[in-house]
Prior knowledge:
Blueprint: H1 2-58, H2 65-68, E1 80-85, H3 95-109, E2 114-119, H4 121-129, E3 133-138, H5 144-163, E4 169-177, E5 183-191, H6 213-291
Parallel strand pairs: 1-2, 1-4, 2-3
Antiparallel strand pairs: 4-5
Amino acid sequence: MAGLREIRRHIRGVKNIAQVTRAMQMVASSKMRRAQDQVLAHRGYVARAWRLLSHLAAVETGVEDRQLHPLLAKRPVKRIELLLVTASRGFCGALNHTVIQRAAEFILEQSAPVRLVTVGPKGRDWMLHHGQRIVAEFAGVGDEATLAELGAPIAEVLMDDFERRDADEVYMAYAEFVNTLIQKPVLRKLLPLPHDPSLGMHTRRAFTFEPDRRALLADLLPRLVHFQVLQVLREAMASEHSARMVAMREANENANDMLNDLTLMANRMRQRAITQDVLELSEGGLFVSSLE
Length: 292
C-alpha cells in the first residue's frame, strides 16, 4: 500500500497545481480581453496618424528632412538604438524567447553598434548575459494606467538620443498581437520617419497648412512618436496576456489529464489490493475447511 499512498500524495499535488493554473488562466483571460480591446481601439488611429504625418512630411520637395524637423533627419548610420519590449513575468510560453531571438538576429545583422533600451526584465537579463549594451531600462508593462505613465518617458529617451546623435536610427522589437493564439515578433523602424510611399495619401492636390508645415511637425511629430511607443506597449501587453492565458489553459489541461491517469492508476492498485485480500480470505477459508 506504500505505492498507493505515494500516488494519492501525487494526486493531491497535481490537484493543487490544476487549481493554481486554472486561477491564473482566469486572471489572464480577464486581463487579455481588456488589453485586446485597447489594442484594437487605438490601432486604426495610430496607423492613420502616421499616414497623415508621412503625407505632411512629403508634400513638398526640395526641402531637406532635417530642416523640417530633427526627428526626420537621415544621416549615415554609425549608431543604432533598439527598444526591446518583453513581458515582465514568465508563464507565457515562448513569447519572450521569440521576441528576444528577433532582436538578437537584428543586432547580428547590423554593421553599426546597437545600444538597447529595454522594457521588462526578461529581455534586459538576456541581453546583459550576452554582453549587450543597455543605456536605459524600464519596468515591464502592466495595465493601461501603467502604460500611460510608461510611454512618455520611453518616447522621450528615444527622441532625445536621436536628436543628440547618440543614435542615427531607432528601431522597436516587440510582440504584435494578431489574435488570441498568435503573437508575432516584429521589428519596426521608428526614427527617422520612414518615407514609405504606401503610407502617403497618393494625391496631387495642393494643400495650404496653417500654421506652416514646420510648426505642425514640431507639435505633431513628438506626439505621434509617443503614441507609436504607447501602441507598441499595448501590443506587447495584449500579446503577453494572450500567451499566458493559452499557456495556463494548456497547463491546466495537462494537469487534468495527469490527474485522470493517476486516479485510474490508484483505482487499479486499490482494486488489485482488494482482489488480493479476497483471494487470501478465500484460500484461508478453504484451508480451514480442509482441516475440518
